[in-house]
Amino acid sequence: MSSSSSSVSTTTTTTTTSTNSNKNDIHIESNGVFTMTEYKTLCVICDTLFSDDSEVALNEIESLLPKNSKSPDENNKEHQLNILKEYFKRKSSDLDVAGQFLKLIAATKSSSQISDLKTLLGLLSTTGAGIILTGQFSSFVNLPLKSRQQVLTMMKSSSNPIRRQAFKAIVPLVISIYYSVIISGETSNPNWDAVGYDTPSPPEQIPGEEKLSFIKITSETSLKADAVVIGSGAGGGVTAAILAEAGYKVIVLEKGSYISSNNMSWKESEAFPLLYEQAGTLTSDDLSINILAGSCLGGGTTVNWTASIRTPDIILEEWRKQCPNAFESSRFNRAMDSVSSRLNVNTIDTVLDGTGAHNKNNKILEQALRDLDADPQPIPRNTKNCDTSQCGNCSMGCRSKSKQSSMVTYLEDCCSKGGQIITNCQAEEITTTSSPSSGGGQTVHGVIGYVSTPDGLKYRIFIKAHIVVCSAGALHTPTLLLKSRIKNSNIGNNLYLHPVIPIIGEHTQPVDLWKGPPMTVISKKYQKIIPNNNLRGGKNTGSILETPNAHIGLSGSNCSFIWEDSFNFKKKFLNARNFSAFISICRDTVPGKIRLDKDGKSPKIQYKLSDRDWKSMMPSVEASLRALIKNGAVEASIPMNGFKPANQDTIEQYIKSIKSNGYKSNQTVILSAHQMGSCRMGSSRSNSVVNENGESWDVKRLFISDGSVLPTSVGVNPMITIYAISHIIANQIIQLYPLPNSSSTTTTIAATTSSNINILNDEINHSPTQIAYERDN
Ligand SMILES: Cc1cc2nc3c(=O)[nH]c(=O)nc-3n(C[C@H](O)[C@H](O)[C@H](O)COP(=O)(O)OP(=O)(O)OC[C@H]3O[C@@H](n4cnc5c(N)ncnc54)[C@H](O)[C@@H]3O)c2cc1C
């Protein structure tokens, strides 16, 4: 699922329903966060998006039959007709889409985002005030269906950004839920038969030796370790493994859950809440960028698409201007060699027997690139014996463990050397102490976190540590530093997102872009990196072309631009199997920021796609659109509201129009799966958060080791770059703070414990600053 939160900011005074709530007005499924009145308003919106279209469909239904190619009995016309009739009859409320929507928002969004959604729902149920959004004096909920459909269509491409934002706050998520939700007691979504999406098989329960080692927390607990690593993704995984290998007693804290192969459901509505930040609904604060980021054991590496691309030399050259040691060519290349070897990066799984393991979507891109003389290259991937018959669910985890994620490589290495992991543990604060050894400056002291249990309990834990490594990713590392009141004005600045424009083709045959290895072909023809010496992110950078992995819910949410009424959307989406998608990934030059949300806890992602970066993506977008049509696509488009997909006759006019329209926030779907730079490494405290060793300028023995240290946008898929710089930082930690001899390490460590980690229950009530770390003495 993707997109949509809810932050339509408006200063209009309105009677939001929440203020007048009483007990009977509570929407129980959202835990009372929303009222029944708000729920009912949302129900009307959802039933506008998907209404009972059985009457309209009656005349056309026979002609739609051939497109419905999947059925238990292909020849049974009656059966297929019934599937279609049910599909066109099905309203959102038949699946309680509104209830699912509010439940998801209540569980994942910050209080300020929830309050924005309440304001929006209030406006749509109010006579008069709602005119700001709908252009109608009557309240939206009281309008007849046709008028409601017209209002929503008007809003999505309105010149008023607030209206576009309101559309974005609701519609993509409703579409995603309509095509992915599984109602209680069922095993699949009832729309799947009509659109030809197969129900994922349940995971096999394969008994196996557990190579990961977990600490189970069942009460308030105090622990002690040589190094705490916060976050278990690319940066956290390799850092934890290297420190454990060097003999450090390592604890890894991960706020997400451990989803083993046996528990990977591969159903979006179940998998995304367990694997992604905000269940895949994270956006920038104005909703204009949909952000996918992993939040589970292994972080982004558990859900990513395995493209393992080395840092371009020209980028390393740019970064060396500020950080000559960290990005020194031979050193960085050695680090990339080392991580590539551990992650089994190879092209054999991509170019099987020279015939290509490309799925249909990648074959379409490869052919398009050949036509464009755009040098299609196979993408190296971190896989081992990829079982291509199972592939395609990479974004919901790899059951066969072919994907060499941090979870099945470095975290296992870490645990084999005595490291331990605490999952569902959100680090809330890095504690510091002023130490004489740092001339009165701050030194790291430990980490306070909260562990959530499946039965809804929360336990506070405190871990006293010699070294703290923050590897919470480029969204959460700055958030945690800000929450910990670490003083450095660069924290959260320089956020790069690699903005992505999807380019969608519609073909006459199934493409099934959710099947097969997702990302196996790349073209760099449209990327021209001109480095910049002063960390300003380069100029005129262009974009690379690749392909995404998108299942039915995610595909649906990205198709909200074609929604004009319920019937026609449902009809169009019968062709979901025939859609192909390329992605143009931009090396962005104008960064955004991470700030603390009003709740003081969550990241507020402030990012506006610049005109310059939008324009730099246009050559690859334009070329892709033409190539799609040339190669037999019946339609091609980008998800831009207000522009109908182009066909052979209209393609040139279409390209002209989208170029002259330019970029407007919330008009075009812009995605991001790569977040970088928000606590960057640099040459001085005035331009960065950490030094070349990855150590904080402000707090001794606090390191950052993840995508947030990258000085600027890397311009290619960043996983290998992040692993490599984290590899370098981990080795710097060992150099700078080698383990003292064993006599001092054991001062407070109980020799009897079977675990390397010691539980210090007597310290649970101490405030962090009261405990001095023995090693320093
Ligand atoms: C769908 C998708 C596809 C991708 N495909 C590719 C690809 O093919 N190739 C590629 O190079 N890159 C890809 N990426 C990007 C790549 O996976 C990330 O850039 C990389 O994983 C980032 O590493 P990291 O260590 O910075 O953070 P992450 O891997 O995001 O890890 C951070 C971890 O920290 C945890 N955390 C956050 N805050 C806290 C806290 N307070 N306490 C405890 N834990 C916390 C998070 O839950 C998360 O698990 C993809 C990403 C996504 C989402």
UniProtKB/TrEMBL annotation:
Domain Glucose-methanol-choline oxidoreductase C-terminal: 592-725
Broad EC category: oxidoreductase
GO CC, alphabetical: membrane
Stretch list, region Disordered: 1-24
One Pfam family it belongs to: FAD_binding_2
Enzyme Commission no: 1.1.3.20
Keywords (A to Z) from UniProt: FAD, Flavoprotein, Membrane, Oxidoreductase, Transmembrane, Transmembrane helix
Gene3D superfamilies xref list: FAD/NAD(P)-binding domain
Catalytic site: 674
Biased amino acid composition, Low complexity: 1-21
GO molecular function: flavin adenine dinucleotide binding; long-chain-alcohol oxidase activity
Major place of residence: membrane
Domain of life: Eukaryota
UniProt catalytic activity: a long-chain primary fatty alcohol + O2 = a long-chain fatty aldehyde + H2O2
Domain Glucose-methanol-choline oxidoreductase N-terminal intervals: 275-500
Compartmental location: Membrane
Domain annotation FAD-dependent oxidoreductase 2 FAD-binding: ranges: 226-263
Function: Long-chain fatty alcohol oxidase involved in the omega-oxidation pathway of lipid degradation.
Family according to the record: Belongs to the GMC oxidoreductase family.
PANTHER family in the record: LONG-CHAIN-ALCOHOL OXIDASE (PTHR46056:SF12)
Protein name: Long-chain-alcohol oxidase
Native source organism of the sequence: Dictyostelium firmibasis
